[in-house]
């Protein structure tokens, strides 16, 4: 198994020359708020009824829950390439803009396709 990037330590002598900061991942609530904000204009532009705040929040919640499930089930300790970050959610959101979203069923198809493309390719 390949060593993880987080397993290596930086020599104290080098660390004394740098300023460092660590920032954790956002909470599930924060991710829901972030991706609701990202999805709102995308869905409003395509299909007005889907752009309602309640539906967008529900879609963002499903995305975040799926991301959290994938992240908890596929850990880097199992395989070195199982590294999932909020960047994957951003890629997923942006990828939906490449498709022509004409109705609700198309949106669901696109979201499922893009989630498989992003998460199954790892």
From TrEMBL:
UniProt cross-references to InterPro entries, sorted A to Z: DHC, DYNC2H1-like_lid, P-loop_NTPase
Pfam short name (any one): DYN_lid
Gene3D superfamilies, per the entry: 1.20.920.30, P-loop containing nucleotide triphosphate hydrolases
Domain Dynein 2 heavy chain 1 cytoplasmic ATPase lid, first and last residues per copy: 38-122
Alphabetical GO biological process terms: cilium assembly; cilium movement involved in cell motility; intraciliary retrograde transport
Gene Ontology cellular-component annotations: 9+2 motile cilium; axoneme; cytoplasmic dynein complex
Superkingdom, taxonomy of origin: Eukaryota
Gene Ontology MF terms: dynein intermediate chain binding; dynein light intermediate chain binding; minus-end-directed microtubule motor activity
Recorded coiled-coil stretches: none
Protein name (database record): AAA_lid_1 domain-containing protein
